[in-house]
Each structure stands twice: as structure tokens, then as C-alpha cells.
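Researcher: Next entry in the queue.
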Amino acid sequence: MLYLLALLALRINADDACNGKYTDQASCDADSACTWCKAAAVPSSCFEVANAKKLPAGVFQCDSKSFVEEIEDEASYMFQFLQWYRQHSKVYTRSSFGKRYMTFKKNLKFINSHNGKNSSIKLALNEFADMTNEEFNTQMKGYKQIKRDYIRSKNVIKADPNAQVPTSVDWTSQGAVTPVKNQGQCGSCWAFSTTGSVEGINYITNGNLVSLSEQELVDCAGTFGNMGCNGGLMDYGFEYAAKDGLCTESAYPYKAQDGTCQSSSCTAAVTIKGYQDVDSDSEQALMQAVAQQPVSVAIEADQSVFQFYSSGVMDSSSCGTQLDHGVLVVGYGETDGKQYWKVKNSWGSSWGMDGYILLGRGSGGAGICGILSEPSYPTM
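Model: Structure for this entry, 380 residues:
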């Protein structure tokens, strides 16, 4: 009898989309299409709800919810969705409402499942909760990694083995960082990282914190190798700023779309001399650079945990090192025994820790999310 039960379970498992996808009960139950089934005769497994109903009820105990419970769960998801919908002033067409709700529901389940595990970070709903991870990656990044090892080697600064650096740095508390901005659905992260670095060194050098124009870089820096909302590099942005300077944000406001260059209609408020690349894969070199000014870096930010990051030190190497997003390192330090880099993002203040993320420090190699791979900063 036990042999037959085992064969039955194995046969159903072979054609079951949930089996193998989830190996623990919490993850299995978080997916509404799956349910966790226990039995004394065979190992407990995750099954599709339809397949679970084929198992002998007297032998397998499954966590399938009753119809009333499913209705109550759906009502709860819809209530949370409508609250979030109003909070973020979302507007959908009638045909897209259902798709956005189902995406929101899937993302909320992912967030709840993650937060139920032992992780160094917490996730939360934000304005991106109605976007699939694929949509988010297409619209919200824009760093175009180009192999420039030779060029960087001619412009790189290496760590000084005798240099002493502070145990912690935070340029936001020293007035060198403008409020968090939002790139919108335009792959212009490189432009925001560029302006952030230039704003920082301008404040440190001249004592004036001036918000500079990302839209000018989007519209005008194409001849330096950038592609506006389709991506670019901070080093190319620095090259533009060294040649033509940058107008203020108010004189050349951001529109989150490609446009015709209008730099002739405003006067450059800040001009830099050039830029310096920081030695790759060197934590000491980046610490020395950040100790003197905010520094532009590229990271990999295409995982769902990054999309919904809310708090904590992200110290897992699982985020990868395939650079796709430009951000700004504004400091470093340690909290609860975890070393971190403080990073300013360009996804608005509703994302992360009021627009910031703490990335783990001290992991070696390319660093968490590749943060040590291609740092650079402007010079004055």
C-alpha cells in the first residue's frame, strides 16, 4: 500500500509545476496556485491545488483553503491594492486594471514571503508594486556597461596604502547632497549619478549646494556616447560637464523623456575640470575616494529584492555583478555589526530608506552588487 502511494505521489509530482519550484511550506503556501501536502508514507511536497485534490484525502493532508477563506484572502488583497492605488495616485485604463492588480498581488506575496525569512533586509510596497520585475528592469535603470579597461587604466587612482580614512562618512549630514530625485520611466540613472557627484564636489569646493540638470545630460550628451533615456555612462557625463558645464535643475527642468538639446537657453552654473576613475575591486580605494567626496558607482539592481528594498544592510552576493544601474555613494559606516556603503538612488523618496540603500561592505572582489567595479568622481 505504501509503495502504491509513493508511486501515485511521484507520478503527480512529475507533471506538477509547483513541485520542485518550492521546497518549503512557507514559499509554497505563498503562491495561491500551490498547496503544501503532508503524508507519513512519502516526503511532504508542494503541489498544484488541482493535483492536490487527486491525492487520497485519508492519507495526504493538504493546506488547501476553503472557498470562504479564499474569498476573504482575495478581499484582503483587493483592499490593500486599493489603499496603495490611492496612496500613489495611480490611473489605469479599464483593460489594464486587472493585470496591474494581479501583478500587485504577486509582488505582495513575494514581499510577505521574503519578510518571513531570516534576511538582513526588509521589503515593502512602494510605487513600483504594480510592475513586473521585467517591466521594472526595462524602465528604471539605464547604465550601459562598456568594457573600458584600457581607458580606465590610464585614468585610474589606486589606494594609498599609507592613507588614514575616517571610520564613517556621511555627506548627507554635511550638506553636500541634494534631496532624492526620481528618474521616472526613463533609463537616465547615469545622468542622476553624474549630477549627484558634481553637486557634491561643487559644494565641497565652493560651499554652494546647487541642484543640477539631468535633463541637459539626457538631451545634450549624446555626442559623448550617451543615449539619453536608453542609457549611458557617468564618465561620459563627466566629459560633457567638463566641456560645456551644467545648468541648474530649475533652468533646465527634468521631463523624464528624450528631447532636443536646449543648453543654449541657460547658463552653465557649474563646470568641472575632469574626472578620476577609482581602482576596481579595491574597497580601500573607494573608501579613500568617498572620504573626500560623493562618488558615482554602477551596480546590478535587477533582482526583485532591489525593487522592493525597504531597510537593512543588503549584504548578500546574490544580487550579482552585471552592472546595469548608476547610483551615488554618499558615505560608509557600520550598524549592528554590519559594514555598509550608503547609496543614494534615483527612484524617489518612497523607495528604500527615504530613497537610499545600505549595501554591504567588506565582501571583497567586485563588492556587493558590483559596487567596487567602476567607481569614478569629478574633479574641480
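Model: The first helix runs from residue 2 to 14.
Researcher: Noted, moving on.
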